[in-house]
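Task: sequence design from structure.
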């Protein structure tokens, strides 16, 4: 088990280093932030003075080394626009993104489990097919388009819910509805496939022969086994969800990390971009480590492998 944990931690550290390197190179390919910050009438000497003050006149390898050492020390520089530590700016926006991602994930996953279990307890292929068809039809519409339609119906036409912002619990309804309904199809297919494999298993037939009721068989025995292979996919998908809310946060004017990164890219505020991407990458890595450890705890065969 110890070797398993060490290997996973080493892989996480290597992934984080690769992300740091990629972000450092990418943001510097976007253009000169000093030219964007300075007014058009600024002289070459003034531009150079600001560049020197920010340390952007040094060789890239030196900037890269300083960036790595500062990142390991918990400092990612100051925002070029706000004059505050970039990490502080990012951490202010992080809760809004995490709330939206975790709430949408939890509702989508719970709904998929409930629908799959209901269809299996009922023993109806038509019901399973109906649930899957509806979920797949929803997934065929891009989230941003579905979100805009929901805003038009529920906010503009009916006036039931706020269209943008994060001012009350009602503000969560449309974004969470948009994201969670998109997630249902994925988990519904995975759980349904697991049920299909177990339905003719020897231990299931034995339980039926012993007179175990169908609801008890499904909920107490089949469902826990069906969820085991879904754990890994769910963890990866949650990490992707946290990093993939950029467009939706823009659509709903959600004050989260994705919108902050978009604004910072437009403003060439690369310390904030670096801090934001690093925060998303760190969240993804932590979630995947937690899933790996959970899976190893649930399935001893993973540790042995």
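Answer:
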């Amino acid at each position: 088990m110890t070797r398993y944990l060490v290997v996973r931690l080493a892989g996480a550290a290597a992934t984080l280093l690769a992300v740091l390197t990629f972000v450092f190179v990418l943001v510097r390919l976007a253009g000169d932030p000093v030219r964007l910050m300075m007014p058009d009438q600024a002289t070459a000497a003034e531009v150079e003075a600001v560049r020197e003050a920010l340390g952007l006149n040094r060789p890239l390898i030196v900037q890269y080394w300083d960036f790595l050492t500062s990142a390991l020390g918990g400092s990612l520089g100051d925002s070029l626009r706000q004059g505050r530590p970039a990490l502080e700016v990012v951490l202010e926006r992080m809760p809004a993104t995490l709330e939206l991602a975790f709430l949408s994930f939890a509702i989508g996953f719970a709904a998929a489990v409930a629908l799959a279990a209901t269809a299996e307890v009922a023993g109806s292929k038509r019901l399973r097919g109906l649930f899957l068809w509806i979920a797949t039809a929803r997934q065929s519409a891009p989230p941003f388009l579905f979100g805009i339609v929901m805003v038009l119906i529920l906010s503009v036409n009916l006036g039931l819910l706020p269209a943008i912002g994060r001012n009350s619990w009602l503000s969560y309804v449309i974004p969470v509805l948009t994201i969670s309904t998109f997630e249902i199809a994925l988990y519904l297919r995975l759980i349904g496939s697991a049920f299909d494999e177990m339905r003719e298993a020897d231990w299931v037939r034995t339980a039926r022969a012993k007179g175990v009721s169908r609801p008890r068989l499904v909920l107490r025995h089949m469902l826990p086994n069906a969820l085991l292979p879904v754990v890994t996919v769910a963890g990866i998908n949650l990490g992707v969800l946290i990093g993939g809310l950029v467009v939706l946060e823009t659509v709903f004017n959600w004050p989260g990390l994705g919108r902050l990164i978009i604004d910072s890219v437009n403003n060439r505020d690369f310390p904030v971009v670096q801090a934001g991407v690093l925060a998303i990458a760190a969240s993804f890595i932590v979630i995947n480590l937690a899933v790996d450890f959970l899976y190893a705890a649930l399935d001893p065969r993973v540790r042995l492998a």
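Residues 86-122 form the longest helix (37 residues).
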